[in-house]
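Anyone up for a design puzzle?
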């Protein structure tokens, strides 16, 4: 079953209001993993200041590639939502949705920037391309209409959600007794859940009614996969 089909099934059970309420209750019970990176009182905690040293070159490469791609992906996502918001921000129905998702992506990028520094990872050389390409994709699909903007979100978040799942499996080999590793995996899991929530929202708001939905989804999804592979290398 595709990620979009799974999103549709989930959405039939848990609507946006109830999803937000569930997230709020969960956060009240236990803070989100990423919150430690935004808490000045925890800025010297070993879990946010150290990186595993005694790992193989292959595993170190896996970690660096993962964080380089994640940082670039969150940068591109920010600019996608900025492009969409610049076009549709005044729409009373779509504007607030885009703004809400954009605010989450801003937090994701802030945390990814801190993770990149913590783990001594070189940012992608394609930084400017991610920014310009992301904005262009967001603005163009928004100009095609609200449904196309949501179809863009659906396609992007499908790829990113699957990518985070793959990362969680790949990073299982990191030493779990190092203080940074459980936190890193929890942050990736949290961000994966956020991206899936964005996918749900897009499906609920008529992404699949966009003109040439299948073609648009294929183009955007393929572009995301190509970008992921490029950012791993450059």
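Challenge accepted. My sequence:
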């Amino acid at each position: 079953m595709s990620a979009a089909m799974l999103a549709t099934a989930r959405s039939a059970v848990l609507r946006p209001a109830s999803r937000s309420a569930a997230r709020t209750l969960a956060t009240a019970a236990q803070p989100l993993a990423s919150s430690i990176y935004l808490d000045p009182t925890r800025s010297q905690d070993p879990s946010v200041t150290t990186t595993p040293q005694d790992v193989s070159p292959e595993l170190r490469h896996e970690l660096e590639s993962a964080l380089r791609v994640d940082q670039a992906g969150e940068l591109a996502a920010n600019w996608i939502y900025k492009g969409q918001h610049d076009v549709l921000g005044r729409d009373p129905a779509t504007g607030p949705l885009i703004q809400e998702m954009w605010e989450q992506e801003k937090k994701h990028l802030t945390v990814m920037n801190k993770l990149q520094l913590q783990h001594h990872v070189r940012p992608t050389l394609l930084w400017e391309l991610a920014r310009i390409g992301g904005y262009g994709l967001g603005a163009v699909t928004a100009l095609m209409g609200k449904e196309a903007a949501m179809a863009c979100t659906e396609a992007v978040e499908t790829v990113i959600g699957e990518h985070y799942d793959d990362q969680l499996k790949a990073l299982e080999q990191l030493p779990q007794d190092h203080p940074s590793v459980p936190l890193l995996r929890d942050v990736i899991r949290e961000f994966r859940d956020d991206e899936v929530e964005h996918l749900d929202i897009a499906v609920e708001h008529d992404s699949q009614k966009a003109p040439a939905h299948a073609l648009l989804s294929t183009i955007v999804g393929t572009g995301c996969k190509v970008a992921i592979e490029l950012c791993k290398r450059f």
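A detail worth pointing out: Residues 49 and 118 are 6 Å apart (CA to CA).
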